[in-house]
């Protein structure tokens, strides 16, 4: 198991540590609900240094990225970030990712921790004949997600740039917490605003300490992976391994908005046909009409008890106080307000299909 540059700090803070994607990671500190609501109402900090980072450089960089990602990276200017995915050639998804255009011919791909090796192999396989310069810098960088509606004012004293002037899915490379060149990205997987800060491992502890000093008056708290999961689920953001994987297509997952057919990419012909002709199953969001918590793997059934799908993510929403979930269902059960039932042990509990997000702020 690997440690991040901040593992010793999490342990000193009394975090409950768990193995996750090959790392010792803090799952919670004071409790999931408290940490969740800290991010929704104030500001919280996640150590997500387990994420993977690949640099793709030189004049052939864009050609490779266009070939292997579903979104159109040619639209990116320097300072732009873009959510995308790697489609595979068997109608599923290798991984989802964020692509940053760092310089004219330099891109940073940020991938899921559990998929670093798989993604690196995929990148190299498709680089044959293109010859872009590739560097796996995953073990060199730390990543802090400073999230919540008070993040801008709490962190402004740590940098010379105006944080409020960085739009969503844009970034700046600037001084932060005494580090001369940090990537300050207006991204995150919580739906409550804030930033993701990329620094070198040797800078991470200094940044962590200064972030907590600066945020003290705003009630800043460390937040674990459990609350990161409930926060992203309230927004309906897909989690790789739950809601998307090697067997689910971006069209089935409702990711048509990041699947652009203005170019050719891996498996684009199949995905274009899916978009035009429809799919047999689709990822839907639902909320429980009665008491009950949907869990990953539970069956979704119709009014007659016939299985029509399965839950891929579910929880008791800390913000809404009700059970919410995502799941794949057959065509015919995807319309808003359709009643479905979740099989919780021997009971079939009523739920209804809703439009995302669950949490509207």
List the keywords:
361 residues; alpha+beta; single chain; 21% helix; Gyrase A, domain 2; Alpha-Beta Plaits; Elongation Factor Tu (Ef-tu), domain 3
Fold and architecture overview:
The chain has 361 residues and is of the alpha+beta class. The chain folds into 3 domains: 7-48 and 140-234, 2-Layer Sandwich (Gyrase A, domain 2); 52-119, 2-Layer Sandwich (Alpha-Beta Plaits); 280-361, Elongation Factor Tu (Ef-tu), domain 3, CATH 2.40.30.110. Helices cover 21% and strands 34% of the residues. It contains 8 helices and 19 strands. The strands form 4 sheets. Strands 10-11-12-9-3-13 form a 6-stranded mixed β-sheet. Strands 14-17-16-15-18-19 form a 6-stranded antiparallel beta barrel. A 5-stranded antiparallel β-sheet has the order 5-6-7-4-8. α2 (32-41) crosses α7 (225-235). It is globular and about 60 Å long. The two termini are 37 Å apart. The mean pLDDT is 98.
Question: Which helices and strands, and how do they pair?
Answer:
Layout: H1 7-12, E1 16-20, E2 23-28, H2 32-41, E3 44-47, E4 52-57, H3 61-68, E5 81-87, E6 93-103, E7 106-111, H4 116-127, E8 133-136, E9 141-147, H5 151-155, E10 171-176, E11 179-185, E12 194-200, H6 201-214, E13 221-222, H7 225-235, H8 268-277, E14 281-288, E15 299-301, E16 307-316, E17 323-330, E18 339-344, E19 347-354
Parallel strand pairs: 3-13
Antiparallel strand pairs: 1-2, 3-9, 4-7, 4-8, 5-6, 6-7, 9-12, 10-11, 11-12, 14-17, 14-19, 15-16, 15-18, 16-17, 18-19
């Amino acid at each position: 198991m690997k440690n991040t540059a901040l593992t010793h700090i999490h342990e000193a803070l009394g975090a409950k540590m768990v193995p996750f994607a090959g790392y010792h990671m803090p799952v919670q500190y004071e409790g999931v609900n408290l940490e969740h609501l800290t991010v929704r109402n104030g500001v919280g900090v996640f150590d997500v240094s387990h994420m993977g980072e690949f640099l793709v450089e030189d004049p052939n960089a864009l050609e490779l990225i266009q070939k292997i990602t579903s979104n159109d990276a040619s639209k990116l200017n320097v300072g732009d970030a873009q959510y995308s995915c790697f489609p595979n050639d068997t109608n599923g998804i290798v991984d989802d990712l964020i692509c940053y255009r760092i310089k004219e011919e330099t891109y940073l791909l940020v991938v899921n921790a559990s998929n670093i090796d798989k993604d690196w192999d995929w990148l190299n396989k498709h680089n044959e004949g293109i010859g872009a310069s590739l560097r796996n810098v995953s073990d060199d960088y730390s990543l802090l997600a400073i999230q919540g509606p008070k993040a801008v004012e709490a962190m402004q004293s740590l940098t010379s740039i105006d944080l409020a002037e960085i739009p969503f899915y844009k970034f700046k490379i600037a001084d932060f917490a005494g580090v001369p060149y940090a990537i300050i990205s207006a991204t995150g997987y919580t739906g409550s605003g804030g930033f993701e800060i990329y620094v070198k491992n040797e800078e991470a502890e200094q940044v962590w300490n200064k972030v907590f000093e600066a945020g003290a008056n705003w009630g800043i708290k460390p937040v674990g992976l459990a609350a990161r999961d409930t926060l992203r689920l309230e927004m309906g953001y897909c989690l790789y391994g739950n809601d998307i994987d090697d067997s689910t297509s971006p069209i089935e997952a409702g990711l048509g908005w990041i699947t652009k057919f203005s170019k050719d990419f891996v498996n684009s012909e199949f995905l274009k046909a899916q978009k035009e002709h429809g799919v047999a199953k689709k990822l839907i969001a639902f909320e429980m009409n009665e008491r009950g918590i949907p869990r990953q793997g539970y069956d979704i059934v119709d009014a007659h008890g016939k299985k029509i799908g399965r839950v891929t993510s579910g929880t008791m929403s800390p913000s809404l106080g009700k059970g919410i979930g995502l799941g794949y269902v057959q065509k015919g059960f995807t319309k808003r307000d359709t009643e479905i039932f979740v099989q919780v042990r021997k009971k079939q509990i009523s739920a209804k299909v809703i439009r995302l997000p669950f949490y509207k702020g």
